[in-house]
Design a protein that fits this description.
Layout (H helix, E strand, L loop, with lengths): L4 H13 L14 H15 L3 H12 L3 H11 L5 H11 L10
Protein backbone atom coordinates (compact mmCIF):
# COMPACT_ATOMS: atom_id res chain seq x y z
CA UNK A 1 0.00 0.00 0.00
CA UNK A 2 1.69 3.23 -1.12
CA UNK A 3 2.28 6.11 1.24
CA UNK A 4 -0.24 8.92 0.90
CA UNK A 5 0.26 12.66 1.13
CA UNK A 6 -2.12 12.88 4.10
CA UNK A 7 0.03 10.43 6.08
CA UNK A 8 3.18 12.46 5.47
CA UNK A 9 1.36 15.67 6.39
CA UNK A 10 0.20 14.08 9.65
CA UNK A 11 3.73 12.87 10.47
CA UNK A 12 5.10 16.37 9.83
CA UNK A 13 2.40 17.87 12.06
CA UNK A 14 3.25 15.42 14.84
CA UNK A 15 6.97 16.13 14.44
CA UNK A 16 6.40 19.88 14.69
CA UNK A 17 4.14 19.46 17.74
CA UNK A 18 6.83 17.58 19.69
CA UNK A 19 10.26 18.89 18.67
CA UNK A 20 11.94 17.48 21.81
CA UNK A 21 10.53 13.98 21.39
CA UNK A 22 12.64 11.26 23.05
CA UNK A 23 13.80 8.97 20.24
CA UNK A 24 14.97 6.20 22.56
CA UNK A 25 17.07 3.58 20.78
CA UNK A 26 17.15 5.65 17.59
CA UNK A 27 19.67 8.00 19.23
CA UNK A 28 22.26 5.18 19.15
CA UNK A 29 22.11 5.02 15.36
CA UNK A 30 24.62 7.30 13.68
CA UNK A 31 23.90 7.06 9.96
CA UNK A 32 20.84 7.10 7.75
CA UNK A 33 21.70 3.60 6.55
CA UNK A 34 21.78 2.27 10.14
CA UNK A 35 18.49 3.96 10.91
CA UNK A 36 16.79 2.57 7.82
CA UNK A 37 18.13 -0.93 8.53
CA UNK A 38 16.73 -0.75 12.05
CA UNK A 39 13.42 0.59 10.74
CA UNK A 40 13.21 -2.34 8.31
CA UNK A 41 13.89 -4.83 11.12
CA UNK A 42 11.22 -3.23 13.31
CA UNK A 43 8.75 -3.19 10.41
CA UNK A 44 9.28 -6.89 9.80
CA UNK A 45 8.88 -7.64 13.50
CA UNK A 46 5.47 -5.97 13.70
CA UNK A 47 4.33 -7.19 10.28
CA UNK A 48 4.27 -3.76 8.68
CA UNK A 49 5.24 -3.00 5.08
CA UNK A 50 8.93 -2.11 5.24
CA UNK A 51 8.84 -0.28 1.89
CA UNK A 52 6.06 2.01 3.12
CA UNK A 53 7.90 2.71 6.36
CA UNK A 54 11.15 3.60 4.60
CA UNK A 55 9.35 5.74 2.03
CA UNK A 56 7.55 7.60 4.82
CA UNK A 57 10.87 8.27 6.59
CA UNK A 58 12.58 9.46 3.41
CA UNK A 59 9.68 11.78 2.61
CA UNK A 60 9.43 13.03 6.19
CA UNK A 61 13.12 13.91 6.15
CA UNK A 62 12.69 15.51 2.72
CA UNK A 63 15.83 13.86 1.41
CA UNK A 64 16.98 14.89 -2.05
CA UNK A 65 16.94 12.19 -4.75
CA UNK A 66 20.75 11.97 -4.74
CA UNK A 67 20.77 10.91 -1.06
CA UNK A 68 17.95 8.44 -1.66
CA UNK A 69 19.93 6.92 -4.55
CA UNK A 70 23.00 6.64 -2.30
CA UNK A 71 20.89 4.89 0.33
CA UNK A 72 19.58 2.49 -2.30
CA UNK A 73 23.14 1.67 -3.38
CA UNK A 74 23.99 0.60 0.18
CA UNK A 75 20.79 -1.35 0.86
CA UNK A 76 20.53 -3.30 -2.41
CA UNK A 77 23.66 -5.47 -1.86
CA UNK A 78 22.30 -6.26 1.61
CA UNK A 79 19.22 -7.87 0.04
CA UNK A 80 16.56 -5.24 0.72
CA UNK A 81 15.22 -5.55 -2.83
CA UNK A 82 11.63 -4.43 -2.22
CA UNK A 83 12.72 -1.35 -0.30
CA UNK A 84 15.30 -0.49 -2.96
CA UNK A 85 12.76 -0.89 -5.74
CA UNK A 86 10.49 1.58 -3.91
CA UNK A 87 13.35 4.03 -3.40
CA UNK A 88 14.20 3.86 -7.09
CA UNK A 89 10.52 4.38 -7.93
CA UNK A 90 10.20 7.56 -5.84
CA UNK A 91 13.42 9.10 -7.11
CA UNK A 92 12.90 8.45 -10.80
CA UNK A 93 15.23 10.66 -12.84
CA UNK A 94 14.61 13.70 -10.71
CA UNK A 95 17.40 15.93 -9.44
CA UNK A 96 15.83 18.16 -6.79
CA UNK A 97 12.67 16.57 -5.36
CA UNK A 98 11.16 13.14 -5.08
CA UNK A 99 8.27 12.02 -7.26
CA UNK A 100 5.14 13.68 -5.81
CA UNK A 101 2.62 11.57 -3.94
Amino acid sequence: MPVEAAEIAELRRMRAAEPDLDLGEFTLLKTLEETVGYLIACSREIGSDESDMVEALVRLLELPPSEVRDLEKVLRPLGYRDVCDRLRQITGRRKHKLVPL
